[in-house]
Design goal:
58% helix; two-stranded antiparallel ribbon; mainly alpha
């Protein structure tokens, strides 16, 4: 094998190693986020029950307090179409605008490596 092929093989091995490490870390992060979210829900409920929504709790490196949070729904074509239908009576105009938006989106192409896993067959 040439030196270029050896370098390619080594780069692939390293990429697979990093990909495997990222998969493990992502799974762990997801698990931690879920547990943190569950605890947050319980703490917020407890603070509300005790009428402590405005309480500032001192912790080792700062403070903890409840703050209001707004969560906006995603901006989808379905949502845009609904809103346009509310303000534009002509259905054909709404359809034209939606089709125009869909067909004129900027498309960026790039190359990526994608890993697939073999299905396990336990005998």
């Amino acid at each position: 094998m040439s030196e270029n092929n050896n370098l390619l093989v080594e780069n692939i091995k390293t990429w697979v190693l990093y990909d495997s490490q990222l998969k493990v870390l992502s799974e762990k992060l997801r698990e931690i986020r879920e547990k943190k979210g569950e605890l947050q829900t319980m703490i917020v409920e407890q603070l509300k029950i005790k009428n402590m929504e405005k309480t500032i709790i001192e912790i080792g490196d700062g403070e903890l307090k409840m703050v209001p949070k707004k969560e906006y729904s995603t901006l989808t074509f379905q949502y845009i179409e609904k809103c346009l239908t509310d303000i534009i009576p002509n259905k054909e105009h709404v359809e034209y605008i939606i089709e125009y938006l869909k067909s004129h989106r900027e498309i960026k192409e790039s190359s990526d490596l994608r890993r697939t896993y073999k299905k396990r067959t336990d005998s």
